[in-house]
């Protein structure tokens, strides 16, 4: 074992400071034992360069093995995900086609219903127009009948009035003759 300080210089230093030679040697011996014990404990925790290289090689080979496993797993997972993605795409296309078919069907139904409703409304308007035309004709006929009847009554009234005037005139003339 190498010591990284001069033990003889330490003994001399201790002697200069009042220690005896025997005390100085005992102190230096105790320091050397403590340092050796500490170094033994430190060396137990340490590895040699060869051991370190071996451990590094083992770790690197283990990492390489894990890396290969990860690549294989990644490829298998990737292919599984790709196939799953293809399945989902096919299902999505089928669903999209079904939705488009349903939309087309609903549009056709709505157009049919709308056309039926339009024809019903047109028919209703036509019926209303016919009824209105018939009502207008009836009203016109009734108005014409009323005008004819009014003219007829007017003529009758004029006849009766003329007859009454002539009768009154005749009576008045009769009285006039009688009084004259």
Automatic annotation (TrEMBL):
<keyword id="KW-0175">Coiled coil</keyword>
<dbReference type="GO" id="GO:0051561">
    <property type="term" value="P:positive regulation of mitochondrial calcium ion concentration"/>
</dbReference>
<comment type="similarity">
    <text>Belongs to the CCDC90 family.</text>
</comment>
<keyword id="KW-0472">Membrane</keyword>
<protein>
    <submittedName>
        <fullName>MCUR1 regulator</fullName>
    </submittedName>
</protein>
<keyword id="KW-1133">Transmembrane helix</keyword>
<keyword id="KW-0496">Mitochondrion</keyword>
<feature type="coiled-coil region">
    <location>
        <begin position="78"/>
        <end position="105"/>
    </location>
</feature>
<feature type="transmembrane region" description="Helical">
    <location>
        <begin position="160"/>
        <end position="179"/>
    </location>
</feature>
<dbReference type="GO" id="GO:0005743">
    <property type="term" value="C:mitochondrial inner membrane"/>
</dbReference>
<dbReference type="InterPro" id="IPR024461">
    <property type="entry name" value="CCDC90-like"/>
</dbReference>
<dbReference type="Pfam" id="PF07798">
    <property type="entry name" value="CCDC90-like"/>
</dbReference>
<keyword id="KW-0812">Transmembrane</keyword>
<dbReference type="GO" id="GO:0036444">
    <property type="term" value="P:calcium import into the mitochondrion"/>
</dbReference>
